[in-house]
């Protein structure tokens, strides 16, 4: 019975640890859903995709959070497995084993209900946020929410092709802002990173560009080659962006005071 109670406590603490880690990752700029996934993946050791691994390894604070989470997860899983084995092996009577099984089932049900409860989640999140603000220097910057990435906007990195429409043209010539696309930065080999480049900045082959905008607009941009159709596509998306802005303006003006 003691082993069953121990297992229940370990699972409860594990859920709390992953919750704390997920909120800490949100403080580093990850979206809530991505932070939850990465925290659970690191704790259980199930692994992450290449892009997600890079986003962790290139960020010192995220790397430290995940590293500690992996260490705690290894110890927690081993302890949980040991407690589970002892729950059914150590007792000499069937009644004791049934009591242990009942404790595990009820305990897991309570944990599941707590995890699913919006009230518990909101209250726990508030407490953890206050503790992190008070005892750490983590700053809440949920860039995914700030940039509205869930509304079909996204931020991507891609290379400029030598035969691409953008190559050897300035940002002023490209006029991407009229399409609703913003160049956040350009990483150029042997030259470094150019943050928020101006209109006179010229794109070169093999530049790594960080772009923010609508998904379909970005996809169209990187499919364009140096031909007549590229300019046609540009004009098409300029009109599309004007229509989107007109709709947004109408929504704002039609809102009651």
What is this structure's SSE topology?
Layout: H1 2-27, H2 32-44, H3 50-57, H4 60-89, H5 94-116, H6 118-135, H7 143-146, E1 153-159, H8 171-174, E2 182-188, E3 192-195, E4 208-214, H9 215-223, H10 228-254
Antiparallel strand pairs: 1-4, 2-3, 2-4
GO molecular function: monoatomic cation transmembrane transporter activity
Keywords: Membrane, Transmembrane, Transmembrane helix
Protein name: RCK C-terminal domain-containing protein
Please describe what this structure looks like:
- By secondary structure, the chain is of the alpha+beta class.
- The chain has two domains: 2-135, no CATH class; 147-254, Regulator of K+ conductance, C-terminal domain (Alpha-Beta Plaits, 2-Layer Sandwich).
- Helix content is 63%, strand content 10%.
- It has helices spanning 2-27, 32-44, 50-57, 60-89, 94-116, 118-135, 143-146, 171-174, 215-223, 228-254; strands at 153-159, 182-188, 192-195, 208-214.
- The chain has a four-stranded antiparallel sheet.
Summarize the structure.
By secondary structure, this protein is α+β, with helices and mostly antiparallel strands. It is built from ten helices and four strands; from the N terminus they run αααααααβαβββαα.
Biggest sheet: strand arrangement: 1-4-2-3
- Give the ordered list of helices and strands: HHHHHHHEHEEEHH
Shape: elongated
Low-pLDDT residue intervals, each spanning 5 or more residues: none
Supply the number of helical segments: 10
Task: Please give the radius of gyration in angstroms.
Answer: 26 Å
* Beta-strand proportion: 5-15%
How much helicity do the residues have?
Answer: 55-70%
């Amino acid at each position: 019975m003691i082993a069953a109670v121990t297992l229940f406590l370990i699972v409860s603490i594990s859920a709390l640890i992953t919750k704390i880690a997920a909120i800490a990752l949100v403080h580093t700029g990850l979206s809530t859903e991505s932070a939850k996934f990465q925290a659970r993946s690191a704790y259980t050791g199930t692994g992450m995709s290449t892009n997600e691994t890079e986003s962790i390894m290139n960020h010192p604070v995220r790397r430290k959070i995940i590293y500690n989470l992996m260490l705690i997860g290894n110890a927690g899983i081993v302890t949980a497995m040991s407690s589970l084995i002892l729950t059914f092996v150590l007792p000499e009577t069937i009644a004791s084993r049934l009591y242990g099984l009942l404790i595990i089932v009820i305990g897991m049900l309570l944990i599941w209900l707590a995890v699913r409860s919006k009230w518990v989640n909101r209250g726990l999140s508030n407490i953890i946020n206050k503790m992190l603000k008070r005892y750490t220097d983590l700053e809440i910057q949920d860039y995914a929410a700030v940039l509205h990435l869930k509304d079909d906007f996204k931020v991507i990195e891609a290379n400029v092709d030598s035969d691409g429409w953008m190559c050897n043209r300035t940002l002023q010539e490209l006029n991407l802002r009229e399409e609703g696309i913003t160049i956040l930065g350009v990483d150029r080999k042997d030259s470094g990173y150019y943050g928020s480049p101006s209109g006179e900045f010229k794109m070169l082959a093999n530049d790594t560009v960080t772009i923010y905008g609508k998904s379909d607009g970005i996809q169209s941009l990187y499919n364009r080659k140096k031909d007549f159709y590229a300019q046609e596509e540009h004009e098409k998306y300029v009109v599309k962006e004007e229509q989107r802005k007109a709709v947004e303006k109408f929504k704002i003006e039609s809102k009651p005071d």
